[in-house]
Design a protein that fits this description.
With 331 residues, the protein is α/β, with parallel strands linked by helices. The protein folds into 2 domains: 198 residues, 3-Layer(aba) Sandwich (Rossmann fold); 97 residues, 3-Layer(aba) Sandwich (Rossmann fold), CATH 3.40.50. Helix content is 43%, strand content 15%. The protein is built from 14 helices and 10 strands. The strands form 2 sheets. The protein has a 6-stranded mixed sheet with strand order 1-2-10-7-8-9, sandwiched between helices. Strands 5-4-3-6 form a 4-stranded parallel sheet, with helices on both faces.
Length: 331
């Protein structure tokens, strides 16, 4: 079973890397997956295992991308899909996807963490498969991103930068890199550099955040389900986890669009925002190969693009003289 997930582009930086003194900077474009985010990698495995087990229904809590992936694979394989989302805190592009795929959507008057708690309780009471990243098959699917990076670069990168929300993806990538090393497919493993938003940074702060807030809705999570596994990945890789504020996230978001031609959702740009701060922190990138995982497509959150791009439409009459007059006058 498949919708064509995986094998996403690994694109070399054209401008941002040079500005940081990093000659070997790459972006992994996970927004090129079927539903526009990395979630498809794990969802295809989780849904396959649900079908193997004879399940007829799947359920998840979501800040958006998980709901889109679950609903898509559920629709394709005739599974009833139920998603719980925090009311008013999910980007329109993601909610529209779940609606289009025909999922049953319950808007919870609470946070993602409260929605996940409700979902986990429901699984104990119903014959239904949980497809959040606490499902180990999700991690098995998502680790394939690490395999692809090594296959293409012919080695593991020195540094992997990745956004951290529920912390399943950083856990999965570390699992993939260590397995490839154990199989002799890579000599080394990267330092794992995870980045949370300042208003939703429980791992950085060392305590759950009751009311997480950030423009990066995909990582607006106050109590990550894979917290301990993420910290293990950081410890084993001699990595770190930092936080970036919303202004830094949007700055990186705009730079990716304007300097690299890459349109990703704000949560994706959190890892680039973190990378941009590294030279200031004394981390020399000049001889490093760095990969940033851009987790979702920018069309997931059209509202942010509309509010942040700040490009005004220029109106013109439909004749060549009017067009030439406008273009010759400059901006």
């Amino acid at each position: 079973m498949s919708l064509g997930e995986g094998n996403t582009p690994l694109v070399r930086s054209q401008n941002i890397g040079d500005s940081l003194g990093c000659k070997n900077l790459y972006f992994k474009l996970e927004g090129c997956n079927p539903t526009g985010s990395f979630k498809d990698r794990g969802m295809v495995v989780a849904v396959a295992k649900a079908l193997e087990a004879g399940k007829k229904r799947i359920i998840c809590a979501s800040t958006g991308n998980t709901s889109a992936a679950a609903a898509a694979y559920g629709a394709r394989y005739k599974l009833e899909t139920i998603v719980l989302v925090p009311a008013g805190e999910i980007a329109l592009g993601k909610l529209a996807q779940a609606m289009a795929y025909g999922a049953r959507i319950l808007a919870v008057n609470g946070s993602f963490d409260e929605a996940l708690s409700a979902v986990r309780s429901a699984v104990d009471l119903m014959e239904i498969e949980l497809v959040n990243s606490v499902n180990p098959f999700r991690i098995e699917g998502q680790k394939t991103g690490a395999f692809e990076i090594v296959d293409e670069l012919k080695q593991a990168p020195d540094i992997l930068c990745i956004p951290v929300g529920n912390a399943g993806n950083i856990t999965a990538y570390w699992k993939g890199f260590t397995e490839y090393q154990e199989m002799g497919m890579a000599e080394t493993t990267p330092r794992m550099m995870g980045f949370q938003a300042t208003g939703a940074a429980p791992i950085v702060r060392g305590a759950p955040v009751v009311k997480p807030e950030t423009i990066a809705t995909a990582i607006r999570i106050g109590n990550p389900a894979s917290w301990e596994k993420a910290e293990l990945a950081l410890d084993q890789s001699k990595g770190l986890i930092g936080m970036v504020d919303d202004n830094e996230i949007i700055d990186a978001y705009m730079r990716l669009s304007r300097e690299e031609g890459i349109f990703c959702e704000p949560a994706s740009s959190a890892c680039v925002a973190g990378l941009i701060k590294m030279p200031e922190s004394g981390i020399d990138l000049s001889d490093k190969t760095v990969v940033c995982i851009l987790t979702g497509n920018g069309l997931k959150d059209p509202g942010t693009a509309e509010s942040q791009a700040l490009v005004e439409l220029e109106y013109v009459e439909p004749d060549i003289d009017s067009v030439m007059d406008l273009l010759s006058s400059g901006r």
